[in-house]
């Protein structure tokens, strides 16, 4: 018999003796006290030894499963095309915090208002408004209707927006806007202390338009302030004749500041005055500038005089009566007209 076979026989004999051993009193001193849990029998020990153990038997039921590092770093799946417009999910930082989603790069005008316009940009906006008929009631006219886009004059007399005959006592002759930024008060009645007030009054009262915004007025003012007088080759900026001016212009200048008395009201170098005067034409009116006067016919607030020479002669007559001085000769009227026409 082999050694393995002998070992099996011995084991079987040992198992047969277990009942006798359990009943033998001689083993009682070696047993645990009754109040304690009895020790497992040899048979229980053998069965336990032969029973296969579960792989996870020793692991506690509540132990959390650890996610492998490679799985944690796995790239998330690309969202479907239908969710492309949704904001991207927050990405975890290295510290475990969550960063806010990125903001849109498109900034609306209400969030970031535009900065203030430069003078050039404001004047360009003013030029658009100057030609905008929506400033008037019923879209009937714009500023350029009477002043063209160059800010000069269309040489017509108006009551409101209606053209009337020159000399109509209710009419108002359209003045030039060239050099308007240099004037003291505005309007034939001198009713506007500022250029803003003058433009607003024309839009609301003359053009029957809605109340303009401050931005509209600022743009229009910026534009009309760019309207300067054309270059003058015979007269300097201070009003004195240039050396190469004609003899008639030089003589006319002497009469202007002398016997003609023109410089009393049309003061150099602006050739106007802040106050209003009554020259017998129907009330007190603002003294208009004489710059570029040769191209602003008809003359006076109601356009009663068609020619510049007639206007010069009328004004010398008014001054002579007021100051009890002499009347001019025809040659003096011609010389004075030559100087005034060169302004």
What is the count of DSSP helices, taking H or I runs of 4+ residues? 11
- Distance from N terminus to C terminus (CA atoms, Å) equals 150 Å
Question: Please, what is the average pLDDT?
Answer: 78
CATH class of the domain at 231-343: Mainly Alpha
Helix content: 25-40%
* CATH topology tier name of the domain at 231-343: Cytochrome Bc1 Complex, Chain D, domain 2
β-strand amount: under 5%
- Order of helices and strands, N to C? HHHHHHEEEHHHEEHH
Strand order of the largest sheet: 2-1-3
- Which consecutive residue ranges, at least 5 long each, have pLDDT under 50? 8-36, 54-110
Integer-rounded radius of gyration? 54 Å
CATH superfamily of the domain at 231-343: Cytochrome c-like domain
- Major sheet size, sense and barrel closure: 3 strands, antiparallel
Number of strands: 5
Going by CATH, the architecture of the domain at 231-343 would be: Orthogonal Bundle
Q: Give the overall shape, derived from the CA principal axes.
A: elongated
Structural class: mainly alpha
Subcellular location: Cell envelope
Domain Cytochrome c: 121-228, 247-343
Biased composition (Low complexity): 92-103
Signal peptide: 1-22
Verbal overview:
- 33% of the residues lie in helices and 4% in strands.
- It is mostly helical and 343 residues long.
- Among the domains are: 117-228, Cytochrome c-like domain (Cytochrome Bc1 Complex, Chain D, domain 2, Orthogonal Bundle); 231-343, Cytochrome c-like domain (Cytochrome Bc1 Complex, Chain D, domain 2), CATH 1.10.760.
- It has a three-stranded antiparallel beta sheet, with no helix packed on it. The chain has a two-stranded antiparallel ribbon with strand order 4-5.
- The protein is elongated and about 160 Å long.
- Residues 92-103 have a biased composition (Low complexity).
- It comes from Bradyrhizobium aeschynomenes.
- Keywords: Heme, Iron, Metal-binding, Oxidoreductase, Signal.
- Residues 121-228, 247-343 form the Cytochrome c domain.
């Amino acid at each position: 018999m082999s050694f393995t076979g002998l070992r099996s026989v011995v084991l079987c004999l040992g198992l047969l003796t277990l009942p006798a051993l359990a009943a033998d009193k001689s083993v009682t001193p070696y047993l645990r006290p009754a109040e304690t849990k009895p020790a497992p029998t040899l048979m229980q020990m053998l069965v336990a030894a032969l029973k296969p153990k579960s792989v996870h038997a020793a692991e506690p039921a509540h132990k959390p499963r650890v996610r492998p590092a490679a799985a944690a770093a796995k790239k998330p799946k690309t969202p479907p095309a239908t969710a492309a417009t949704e904001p991207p999910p927050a990405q975890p930082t290295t510290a475990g915090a969550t960063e806010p989603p990125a903001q849109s790069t498109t900034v609306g005008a209400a969030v970031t208002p535009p900065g203030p316009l430069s003078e050039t940009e404001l004047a360009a906006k003013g030029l658009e408004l100057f030609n905008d008929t929506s400033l008037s009631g019923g879209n009937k006219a714009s500023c350029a209707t009477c002043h063209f886009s160059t800010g000069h004059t269309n040489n017509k007399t108006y009551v409101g927006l209606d053209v009337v005959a020159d000399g109509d006592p209710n009419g108002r002759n359209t003045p030039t806007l060239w050099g308007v930024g240099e004037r003291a008060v505005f309007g034939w009645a001198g009713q506007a202390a500022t250029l803003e007030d003058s433009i607003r009054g024309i839009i609301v009262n003359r053009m029957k338009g809605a109340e303009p915004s401050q931005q509209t007025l600022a743009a229009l003012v910026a534009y009309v302030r760019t309207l300067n007088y054309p270059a003058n080759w015979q007269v300097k900026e201070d009003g004195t004749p240039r050396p190469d001016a004609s003899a008639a212009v030089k003589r006319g200048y002497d009469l202007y500041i002398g016997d003609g008395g023109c410089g009393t009201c049309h003061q150099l170098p602006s050739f106007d005055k802040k106050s209003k005067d009554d020259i017998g034409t129907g009330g007190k009116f603002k003294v208009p500038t004489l710059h570029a006067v040769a191209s602003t016919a008809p003359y006076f607030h109601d356009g009663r005089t068609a020619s510049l020479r007639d206007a010069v002669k009328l004004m010398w007559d008014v001054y002579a009566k007021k100051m009890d001085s002499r009347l001019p000769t025809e040659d003096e009227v011609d010389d004075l007209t030559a100087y005034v026409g060169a302004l």
